[in-house]
């Protein structure tokens, strides 16, 4: 019985035109990761629920796609338990595998399982889909690609420096002007330490972030209503009104945080990263931004985020330094630093700013032969073979249908050259070549045709 | 709590070295598909069970990985039904999505959903993983990649010709000597028609296939015990003993099948394909083989299969012509022809025959700088930047640890050049470059170093 087909909500088909664009994004990111010595790995789409559960919080556990066990999936579950309908509890009985939720947990699992083969520091990148049973909405999908790179097993800040260079290189290649925002978890801890309010750090960064919009007075009011003492707010003033160059900012902060050991460490780290980057010819701006507060429960050192300057789309890349990636799998003390490019958002920015390369980057047909019938096809086949051996992506329309239909096909596929072979061309051992953008036609030999297009 | 991590049975991690090899395979296949005008698409990993169920037989339905519904997955199921434990029946109530089982059904679904955007004939390729809950065994995985190409919406035999050329081109690139076996479903139908035994075609092809091993007499005995009449066996003799060139074989068969309309059609088709291929400079042999009987329920015209000549591994590529790809989704009459490269088997053949390119094909580091500390790093950073801008995949060891550890790292990653910068090099504004395979060292300027490696 015929049913009208559909795809699961929150998932997408990618047609040929989207694939060319997506491959351009992934290939560019891959190329740059390789340029910096990162190596690719891939992990299975499915992981055991033991690997996945408890790593993303209760909400994350709910959003994991779980695979129903094969065969008698009720086996071992009593009737009582079934009619008890505790679906949350029963799910790990009905299912022992789930789909990858991100690339970090599978990477941690990979490192622990392959620790004896890996030469540390391990610079790996991974570009694969992940799945989340989130409520689908504009720009949020249930299946999407992540493009992660991490260095684990090295505490050197050179790794942070390289990640900043990777970001810069990738966006220069894309032609997207960006601003890289840099912060350090240790600076934020220092601030909290100095004002004696360890748990208020998110309130503080949020309030400071509003300075331009609502003004100093309102910011201070917000801090007071968040429970900060008058003295604490006083101490924060230089940080709230922080401005100038990165050096000036670091100067100001180091005065405020002089008595916080961890704060001073954060300042030193930031200084080293920014100073080193000056030696590398970074094309985009990197600015110290204390309001940046991503992944506070996870990151322990540098934190960074990238915004496109000519788009309102929000963060398109981010990452940071973390401790103890693999502790949860019984391998403590492995620290690292990592980043992730937001491929879907980058796609939207490239589209909105019309920055996708005009010339087909990967794999569109360059030449199509019109098909007038068997005799002409016999003449064309060896030429077609020659063209392909010369590396020209070419095809012959398979059916000898009306020429209009064949030309429509060439247009729909944006094929730049169409070759026409009729009786006359066969007699003269030539081919008529039509340039589809200019409309110009000329008759030439097979070799000249290949030379022209190659 | 730390648990010792594992991955689901039948799945695999791919480390950096395997990824380089796998990328080489996929990139080569992609490149050739593009060369012949095929366009890439991707479909979601999950499809609705409505799309998937009933397409692969009862056994296939069982082997589908089903995704447990989110939230209250028991909703709408009565207590009675639960304790009834009809797990086969209940699975479509607990689950409405499954993982892709192959690329053909999602492709058919794609074509129907996007019929208005597609310009036919549609030449698409698709390289994505599929999942099957098969019992894992050597060489059989629960997650593996398929590499399919199909042309739909054209009945022209030129499409078959092109698929043969694609096969030839791909295996020439790989350096794998292959034999392409060609058959035609219509010839097999013709044989069955002539001898009046429509349902015995599999018995016949299987028996004929044993000719070399067991001899003519035994083959005839097998046919008799399969229920073929003496007369039928008599008629089959020229076909059982078929030999000679493809032309001679077709000659023989056309005498036997002269009265079968469908048989004659199959012979004409095979003749056209083989004749056309003579005009294209095929490097590998293509032979007509009537014992080839793959996918008989599915294929309606040409059938083909590829064997590696220097390996016992069996079929590494196959495909054929089919009718009515999309009828099951309410779009009848769309015929096509398709093929699939067996990436895992090709990987094994390339490994066994030591045919993977020696030079790293995709993305291994070319140059590593040894790290002696901050002063040296400051000197190196701009040079490193320059090297990367010149396209050299390079890295600096992030930590200033013992040189032995750094050299071990370079060796483990098979990095061909190591650059050493100490006090002396800084003073002379040079770099010492070590060729890791020859052990030779020389001191040169940054520009000369780049020229040497690029």
UniProtKB/TrEMBL annotation, chains A, B:
Example GO molecular function: histidine-tRNA ligase activity
> Which ranges of the sequence are coiled-coil?
none
Is Protein biosynthesis among this UniProt entry's keywords?
Answer: yes
Q: Where in the cell is it found?
A: Cytoplasm
Q: GO CC terms on record?
A: cytoplasm
- Enumerate the residues binding L-histidine: 102-104, 132, 146, 150, 294, 298-299
Gene3D superfamilies in alphabetical order: Anticodon-binding domain, Bira Bifunctional Protein, Domain 2
The Aminoacyl-transfer RNA synthetases class-II family profile domain is annotated at 1-382
Q: What keywords appear on the UniProt entry?
A: Aminoacyl-tRNA synthetase, ATP-binding, Cytoplasm, Ligase, Nucleotide-binding, Protein biosynthesis
Q: What is its main location?
A: cytoplasm
Query: Which reactions does this protein catalyse?
Result: tRNA(His) + L-histidine + ATP = L-histidyl-tRNA(His) + AMP + diphosphate + H(+)
Q: What is the main EC category here?
A: ligase
**Which InterPro entries does the annotation name?**
aa-tRNA-synth_II, aa-tRNA-synth_II/BPL/LPL, Anticodon-bd, Anticodon-bd_dom_sf, His-tRNA-ligase, HisRS-like_core, HisRS/HisZ, HisRS_anticodon
Entry EC no(s): 6.1.1.21
Pfam families according to UniProt: HGTP_anticodon, tRNA-synt_His
UniProt cross-references to SUPFAM superfamilies, sorted A to Z = Class II aaRS ABD-related, Class II aaRS and biotin synthetases
Which GO biological process annotations does it have?
histidyl-tRNA aminoacylation
What do we know about how this protein assembles, alone or with others? Homodimer.
The UniProt entry, under HAMAP family, shows:
His_tRNA_synth
Entry's PANTHER family? HISTIDINE--TRNA LIGASE (PTHR11476:SF7), HISTIDYL-TRNA SYNTHETASE (PTHR11476)
Per the similarity annotation, which family is this? Belongs to the class-II aminoacyl-tRNA synthetase family.
NCBIfam families noted in UniProt: hisS (TIGR00442)
Q: Can you name this protein?
A: Histidine--tRNA ligase
Say which species the protein is native to.
Prevotella corporis
